[in-house]
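ligand=biotin
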Amino acid sequence: MVHATSFLLVLSLAMVAPVLSTKKLTPALCVLAGNWTNDLGSNMTINPMDSKCNFDGTYLTAVAESKNKIKKSPLRGSQNCTDKTQPVFGFTVNWSFSDSITVFTGQCFVDKGKEVLKTMWLLRSHQNSIKDYWNATKVGTNVFTRQSPQKE
Ligand code: BTN
């Protein structure tokens, strides 16, 4: 009886162990390329990075400081390729409909199995006089999640 129990114990361990070790060994992979939406409803597309870890893309903001009609704007950035699993990155959006620039910096995390970009940004708007420079910069945070694939 004792032998049978030990045998069953060893057998079940042998069956469960590979599953556990595979889970542990699989690294969380967060990839920047793709379509993302943030907590304000802005949409961004990041193209696959090149061999030097640089990328470009487009940004369609849902909100604006400028009164002009919002247009899709270009972005350029880099990721630090030291750790490709949950990389740190930065990018600049050069707004095509206003005279301002936003720089974002952040990290791509896998949180509960889902990719998320946790970012901070500085929005610098043009001033006509140096006397107004103190009023030129806004700071904030955005959280981006990957858009679900569109059905055709
Ligand atoms: C402008 O109004 O001059 C440009 C648009 C700025 C939009 C900002 S950038 C930071 C924040 N996150 C967004 O998705 N949109 C706003």
